[in-house]
Amino acid sequence: MLFNLRNLLNAATLRKSSKQLVQHFRSGQPTQTNVNLKGRDLLTLQNYTAEEIKYLLWTASDLKQRIKDKGEYLPLLQGKSLAMIFEKRSTRTRLSTETGFALLGGHPCFLTTQDIHLGVNESLTDTAWVLSSLTNAVLARVYKQSDLDLLAKEASIPIVNGLSDSYHPIQILADYLTLQEHYGYLKGLTISWIGDGNNVLNSILMSAAKFGMHLRVATPKGFEPDPNIVKVAEEYSKEYSTELFFTTDPLEAASGTNVLVTDTWISMGQEKEKAERMKAFQGYQITMQMGKQAASDWTFLHCLPRKPEEVDDEVFYSPRSLVFQEAENRKWTIMAVMVSLLTDYSPQLQKPTF
């Protein structure tokens, strides 16, 4: 019994250390772009440098042009499998990941709480070890960020955050790709967040300044983002010389902005707070009237699904709305993430302007 226990502990140490070695050495190997993300986790964009995030967007743009526009077949993930753990329902995250991974020749495996109940019918550590031996990567859409952190610690394969209560990094990659396609650049743009201090906003706070983008945030009193995340964002703002502004006045936040962004006011698990939240967010609906405060070239983003109280139909279905292009780009950006974490692929097309 003691011998078996010692072997298990040694195996755990080997898994952890080998993963750390892969991340340490491969992330430093020179490539065409001097960026190599193979073997990395994607838990939050806080862990990625500006150049690494730009590399992901470059790869997404490259794959979109080669596959969609040029009709090339790129089986870059042939023979690889992906475990998709979903504690929360999803349309875009599930379909973009399943179709994208399959389009690249890989095999996605969808797992709900009916199939795998994290930390209940099997410990997170055991789950991480088993999935590491059966698949090449895990995308997990969960409630607790700590579950993702533990999976990443114990697994020897890349773990990707498909959404947690703290962050939604793969959504923000799609947002940035959409803005880069529309404006032709990102540096110097001003983003205005009008809504709840939630996981989507947290991911913008962890990344916008790295592109030289300014951020103006309006949240009702009591619905501000995590102060620890704000502190990190303030440090980024100083480092990259960008503006970071917080207010409770949506019109003030919208002033002079290029991009108006919002999200649901009531996230999954907050249904009991609906009456309180609907009252607190009065005046936060994005309308053309609010758009008059913005720059002349303003556009609108929403990660969907959208409720009319968050943004009216006039804005949502207008030419200023990029929401459906944004939704499609969830596919190309998650494909870029998987290709970057699982292969040595380098983009073939010219690097976009960021």
UniProtKB/TrEMBL annotation:
Please state the pathway this protein functions in, per its UniProt record: Nitrogen metabolism; urea cycle; L-citrulline from L-ornithine and carbamoyl phosphate: step 1/1
Location(s), subcellular = Mitochondrion matrix
User: Is ATP-binding tagged as a keyword?
Assistant: no
Q: Could you list this entry's UniProt keywords, alphabetically sorted.
A: Amino-acid biosynthesis, Arginine biosynthesis, Mitochondrion, Transferase, Transit peptide, Urea cycle
Sorted alphabetically, the Gene Ontology BP terms of this entry are: ammonium homeostasis; citrulline biosynthetic process; L-arginine biosynthetic process via ornithine; L-ornithine catabolic process; urea cycle
- Which Pfam families does this one have? OTCace (PF00185), OTCace_N (PF02729)
Q: What is its EC number?
A: 2.1.3.3
Report the enzyme's class at the first EC level: transferase
Against SUPFAM superfamilies, the record matches this protein to: Aspartate/ornithine carbamoyltransferase
Origin: domain of life: Eukaryota
Q: Which GO terms describe its cellular component?
A: mitochondrial matrix
Q: Where does the Aspartate/ornithine carbamoyltransferase carbamoyl-P binding domain start and stop, copy by copy? A: 40-181
Q: Where is the Aspartate/ornithine carbamoyltransferase Asp/Orn-binding domain?
A: 187-340
Coiled coil segments of this chain: none
Question: From the UniProt record, which GO molecular function terms apply?
Answer: amino acid binding; ornithine carbamoyltransferase activity
The record's comment on protein family reads:
Belongs to the aspartate/ornithine carbamoyltransferase superfamily. OTCase family.
Self-association or partners: how does it assemble? Homotrimer.
Q: What is this protein called?
A: ornithine carbamoyltransferase
Gene from which this protein is expressed: OTC
